[in-house]
Automatic annotation (TrEMBL):
<protein>
    <recommendedName>
        <fullName>DUF1343 domain-containing protein</fullName>
    </recommendedName>
</protein>
<feature type="domain" description="Peptidoglycan beta-N-acetylmuramidase NamZ N-terminal">
    <location>
        <begin position="69"/>
        <end position="267"/>
    </location>
</feature>
<dbReference type="InterPro" id="IPR008302">
    <property type="entry name" value="NamZ"/>
</dbReference>
<dbReference type="InterPro" id="IPR048503">
    <property type="entry name" value="NamZ_C"/>
</dbReference>
<dbReference type="Pfam" id="PF07075">
    <property type="entry name" value="NamZ_N"/>
</dbReference>
<dbReference type="Pfam" id="PF20732">
    <property type="entry name" value="NamZ_C"/>
</dbReference>
<feature type="domain" description="Peptidoglycan beta-N-acetylmuramidase NamZ C-terminal">
    <location>
        <begin position="271"/>
        <end position="421"/>
    </location>
</feature>
<keyword id="KW-0732">Signal</keyword>
<feature type="signal peptide">
    <location>
        <begin position="1"/>
        <end position="32"/>
    </location>
</feature>
<dbReference type="InterPro" id="IPR048502">
    <property type="entry name" value="NamZ_N"/>
</dbReference>
């Protein structure tokens, strides 16, 4: 069960940060949220603890009084060490519905498994699945909701589906006149802005926004970008309020107190994810079916090339039928890779993909994801068909990176308009 994963206690700290109001216009016209003050001016003082939006209950509880509240949450949605739904319900907030994304409300569904509507046995609150029959709240779902809260931990990549859930929730709220409050959380990969921009023909369930692989935004900042760039259907605008993180900037390391999904169960995996998730579009296993997913890559046919080996097995709640199940896979072990490299270079790693493609004996099958039981083809993951073509052609890494321009630089400039934190 995902909810049995190790949870580190968040510090509750001072609850004094005021609620940041954001209108439905571009951020230049929004009521700007106060930005956490840098401690650089006081080098003698220890860094103040990061306080998430959810933990600043005094900033938003008065606003919830008398409102019928819907919540888009999962097991990362915590106040202190308890699920925010449980905490707010106990505090008397009138939560009328919980909306659960991929992996479900309490996080016990594997990646890609559809989730049904239900009633939460602990609180008696109706749970509406956004990863089953519908992917967006309907008019009927929102008929008895005055305010929606979005409180989910993201990991800063385009193909991590929670920002797509955010988009659809914002769209439904805008279409039905429901205000959305984002309880913001740090992005553990917030320092990283890199990768090709998603091209329109490669939109899919793992990517819908014209952004790079690593977008460098918190969920609150992402919500502002969705509004500001008018990405919602028909240009509708969502009435938006953001409770920003206190004492945070994008360069800060941030160890997640709750693992964000069953297969991102270590800090190492979270920091490797922007690079290693690309292997979902190949016939290589990348750790699904082990207790260290996204930190190893291997294939049964690589025995003559690599000495490191592991055997994927079915693991309930994580990967019940992993690629190459019960077969010994040989390849790369990145469990001890120095992930500070990403912070130093500001780049995702392309060398692992290039190396394993060149080493694999049957190159025509390397990107044959249809035979791999994985989530999508490499074009949708990378956001462009050029990436696969470049790997096959043996193009140098610098040439590949140059092909991401001018789109990547233009995105970095646009991103500046929506930042809440240094």
């Amino acid at each position: 069960m995902y909810t049995s994963f190790n949870v580190k206690m968040l510090m509750n700290g001072a609850l004094a940060l005021l609620l940041a109001a954001a209108s439905c216009k571009a951020p230049q016209q929004q009521e700007a949220a106060p930005v956490a003050q840098s401690t650089a001016a006081k080098p003698e003082t220890a860094q103040a603890p990061i306080i998430t939006g959810a933990d600043q209950t005094e900033a938003y509880l008065p606003y919830l009084k008398g409102k019928r509240v819907g919540m888009v949450v999962n097991p990362t949605s915590i106040i202190g060490d308890k699920l925010s739904v449980d905490s707010l319900h106990a505090l008397g907030v009138n939560i009328v519905k919980v909306f659960g994304p991929e992996h479900g409300f309490r996080g016990d569904a594997p990646a890609g498994i559809k989730v049904e509507d239900s009633v939460d046995p602990k609180t008696g609150i109706k749970v509406v699945s956004l990863y089953g029959k519908r992917n967006k709240p309907t008019k009927e779902d929102l008929a008895d909701v005055d305010l929606m809260i979005f409180d989910i931990q993201d990991v800063g990549t385009r193909f991590y589906t929670y920002t797509i859930t955010l988009h659809r929730v914002m769209e439904a709220c805008a279409e039905n006149g429901v205000e959305l409050m984002v309880l913001d959380r740090p992005n553990p990969n917030g320092f990283l802005v890199d990768g090709p921009i998603l091209e329109p023909e490669n939109k899919s369930g793992i990517g819908i926004h014209p952004i790079p692989i690593a977008h460098g935004l918190t969920v609150g900042e992402f919500a502002q970008m969705i509004n500001g760039e008018k990405w919602l259907a028909n240009g509708v605008q969502c009435k938006l309020k953001i409770v920003p993180v206190k004492n945070y900037n994008h360069d800060m390391p941030y160890d997640l107190p709750v693992w964000p999904s069953p297969n991102l169960n270590t800090q190492q995996a979270i920091l490797l994810y922007p690079s290693t998730c690309l292997f979902e579009g190949t016939i290589f296993n990348h750790g699904r079916g082990t207790m260290f997913p996204f930190t190893v890559m291997g294939h049964p046919d690589m025995k003559d090339k690599y000495s490191f080996s592991y055997t994927p097995i079915g693991i309930k709640g994580m990967a019940e039928t992993p690629l190459h199940q019960d077969k010994v896979c040989y390849g790369l072990d990145l469990r001890n890779y120095d992930v500070s490299t990403f912070r130093k270079t500001g780049r995702i790693n392309l060398s692992w993909m290039m190396e394993l493609y060149q080493a694999y004996p049957d190159k025509e099958r390397f990107f044959d994801y249809k035979q791999s039981n994985q989530i999508g083809n490499i074009d949708k993951l990378a956001g462009t068909k050029k990436f696969k073509e470049q790997i096959i052609a043996g193009v140098s890494e610098e040439e590949i990176r140059q092909s991401w321009e001018p789109g990547l630089s233009q995105y970095k400039q646009m991103r500046q308009n929506y930042l809440l934190y240094p």
